[in-house]
Structure formats: structure tokens, C-alpha cells
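Re: the multi-chain job from yesterday

Posting the exact lines I submitted so nobody has to dig through the queue logs.
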Amino acid sequence: MTQTTATYTPEDMAEFARQARVRILEAVKHAGGGHVGGPYSAADMLAALYFGILDIRPDEPDWPDRDRFVLSKGHSSIALYTMLALRGYFPVEELLTFDSIDSRLQGHPDMTATPGIDMSSGSLGLGFAAALGIALGARTEGRDFTTFVMLGDGECNEGIVWEGAHVAARYGLSNIVAIVDHNKLQQFGWSGETLNERITPYTGTQLADRWRAFGWEVMEMDGHDIPQVLATLEAARAFEGGPVAVIAHTIKGKGVSYMEGDYTWHSKVPNDEEFALAMEELGETEGGAA
Amino acid sequence: MTALAQGKALRLVFGETITELADEDDRIVVLDGDTGSSTYTSLFEAAHPERFFQMGITEQNMLGMAAGMSTLGLIPIVSTFSCFIVSRAHDSIRVLIAQPKANVKLMGGYAGLLAGMTGKTHLMFDDISIMRAMANMTVVAPVDEVETRSALRAIIDYDGPVYFRLNRPNTPIIFDDDYEFVLGKAVTVREGTDVTVFSTGTQTARALEAAEALALEGIDVHLVHVPTVKPLDVDAVVAAARKTGLVVTSEEHTVVGGLGGAVAEALAVNAPTPMILHGLQDVFGESGPDGPLLDKYGISAEKTADAIRAAAANR
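And the result, C-alpha cells for all chains:
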């Protein structure tokens, strides 16, 4: 399950994403806190990245020529930790130390603590800027790896994102791929018809239009359709005409019926009944390990 | 008062020195926040265009990109006005540079009270306190062109984040050409027996002028220049304080948490000593020519002498 040389099929990746959702909820329940909705919207894409797209060596996390991945939506850290563990960077059992004292698995990604984390992040927008710096530095140094960075759609509220978008286009950086997890909800967001209904930060094509207006090539994909994710990210990597933003249409809380599209699951700990139901829906017949 | 020999502006020496350093070290890259025509990164761009990156007016992004570049072994020197680095981009520095100890050098241009006719928005004289409070950060404030040249070499050799204070006006020279800056070390500029004065940055030149004037009045000042405010040279500070038993700190900076704060913290724990904190008094600045600003805000050589004289008289 954690071989470094294996080639994985899209079906394998879907299975890793399923396992990741189980592990994420176990870790959050065990820690008594953490984010769920965002990690679930990103899980399929992270499985595609770590088992299909990224050229990496789990047994040599600092391999200089590896592709870089920066989780700029750092509050989804548990999803990244889970994928790193499944990929063999550290034991899967360590996931249950998430957020506990002295753990390598901090609430937000810490490049000084966790093997496989290419950049610290957490204050929104910063990881994106750092990823652009990695890409510009790589081009300056004649290195030919690709830097992938994942942002949230809520994160795109941040001004720093558009500062960086401008500069990246100005430099014509074609070794950066920004994936925007467009799950249509943020932590609280703007209210809709009722106070319980929260509306998407960017409606229709607004998000794609913004990136395009800043000079980025825009691609779109269903962030839960793994073959589509693989094909789109490979096309984005291959594009040589400048930076690429991939708008990933996703569902916050994807995979558990009562979480999907419910903003309150941005960060929330399931009670025992909710946990059991989630495990059942995720096909985890053993009932989970929380 | 006897004027010291006038030297170059530290910003000009900065531009010249990093250009030279990059001749020898191709890890050095410069990120400019659209102020290169003021901060003299223009010299670097002319000599090393392939290692100069115009970031436009995107300070938060610029500091973040510098952090990313540093992960590849490059040494990013980030340059713009101090207020836009320390204040505008504080979050990027904290999360991406200080927390991971990224090897990024932050050049705070136009720091202090004398930033041309810019006024309070641009006058940054709480930069030392703010950066000093940040874990993992080293804070350096050189006094003259000789020290700036030497200190820039030293901070490039040091692997870690450094905030480096650069002032706008031409600055008197107090050190001989063979002076060598040592990171983390204070340096005695004048031996004396009556009162110990600690100063940093360009204020040291005014403190030295004050000390020479006070000598004529029979007040013998022991002047210690503290170019590295963090980490503070605690041993030197304690020894110099004990030498006279009376301390004045003097800085072109707020008295809240800067050099005065650092010295007070060190002495309170190690060697409690009567002390006066001389500098900007918890205020914002205003537009004006350099001379009247120094006078109004009480840090001219004359006003510095007044502060030291009063401390000595009240001991």
C-alpha cells in the first residue's frame, strides 16, 4: 500500500481517497477538533496528486528534483497528512496524534515538523505566494520540476492571492499549477435566503473569470472525478503559455450525506452517532478507530 | 558640536555592497517592491538583471515569494521601505520566514524618523520593537557606511532571517575602514567612567557627538554601540552597565520595546541599574526636514546631550 515504485490506477486512488476520508474523521474525532468539510472536498484531488501526478520519493522527502506541493488552504492539513501517511511518508497510526502536544502533525502544515511538507501555510494566501516563489526560483535555477498549489475558493477573498496572480502572470511562470478547490462554501460566508443558507463566494463563472482576467490560463474539472483530475492536471503541467489555474468544482463535505453542502461541517467534531453513520457511508464496516 | 565626517547614505552603500556580494555569490537574488530607484537596488538590477526580480507593489506577496525562493538554496534580499515590510507584510514574515527560519534578508529602507517629506504613514520607528518580538528573527541596525558594508557580508554568511535597518540620509562615519562587524556583538565606541550610553543604528553618531561635547563639560561618557539589537549582547551590556552604574539608552526609534526595551529587559534580570530611555516617546511622526524633525522629537545630538546630562545630574 505504501510502495514507492508502484503505478496506481484511478480505482486505487479512489480507494485511497475513501480511506483518507475515514482517517480524517478518525483523527478529528480523536483530537476533539479540526476541519472536515474542506479536507473532504480536497480528498480525491490529493489522492490523484500523491498517487498519480507528483514525482516524489516518500523515502527521500527532500529529494531536490521532486515536484512541489503546497497546501495553501492549510486548514485542510489533516487531509494532506492522511495522504502523506498513506503514501508512506510516516506511519498511518501517527495520524491519531494530530493536534496533540508534541505531535509532528500540527493544526496547520509546518515544514519544519512534518516529512513531505514543502511549505508551511495556514494564514490564507501565504502558501500561494510561497509556491510562486518556489516556481520563480526553480526557473531562475534551471530546475524543471512543477509546483502545484491548492487554494480554497474562500481563500481567494485574500488580496495577497491577486498580488501573486499578477506577478506570476507578469513573469509568465509556466511551472506553476494552482488548483482552486471551489466547494462553494467558506467557514461562515454570506447568508442567502435564510441565515442557515450560506451562498457561494463566487457565483457562476466569477472565479474562473477573475483568474483569466489576471492573465492565467484557466482549466476546469470535477474535483471528485479522478480520471478527469488526472487528465486536467497533466494538461495543466504541460501547458507552456504561462501559469494555469484549475478551477476544481467540488462539494464541501463530499462523501458523507449529512455533511455535503452544509457549511457547519467546515470544522466540527462528529458525535458517536454521526461518526458511525459516516463510517457506514464511507464503507468502513469495522466502524473506524477513533 | 564637533561634526563627524559625512559619509554616504546607508541605502546607497547597501545597493553598492549587495551588487559586489552577488559577483561572488550567485545564490543572492534581490526582490524589489517598486522602490529600487530610492533604495538603490537599481544598482543591483543594472549589474545582475537575471537575479533581480521586480515584484511591483505587492509586499505581502513579495515576502511570501522570497520565502519560497529560499527553499531552493537561494538567498533572497527583499528591499522596500521599512513600513511596507514590517507593517504591511508582517503576516508573511511571521508565518513563512520567521517560523520556518527561512534564509531571507529583509531590508527596511527609510527606517526611522528621517524619511524625506513622507509623514507618519511612512515614518517607521517601531520596526525594531516589532521585529524583535518575533521569534527566530535577528535585528541589525548599522550606524555608518563602513559598518553597513561589513554587516551586509555578515548577514549573508548567517543562515537565517534577518531584519536590517537602512536609513535614508547621508550619515556620518564613525568607524575606521578596518572595522569589522560581528553579528551579535556590541562595540565600545568611547571609553568613559561617568555614564554608560547604549545606542544603535544611526543614532550612535549623534550619541558620539553628544559624548564628545559632554566631555568638555567634565561628563565622561562610556558609549557602547549595539548594532545587533537581537540577539542582544547581554554580557557586554551587563559589563558596560556595571562599569558606571548609570545607563542611558538612545535610539532613533520609539522607547517602547526597542533597544531601550531590550537593554532594560537584560539589566532587570541580570544587573538592575538606574536607567533613562531616550528616543521617540510613544508617538507617530510627521513630515519635515531632517534637522527640525530631530530637534522636535528630541534626538538631535544636542538633545541627546541634554538627556545624558540630565541623567548624570540626577544620579
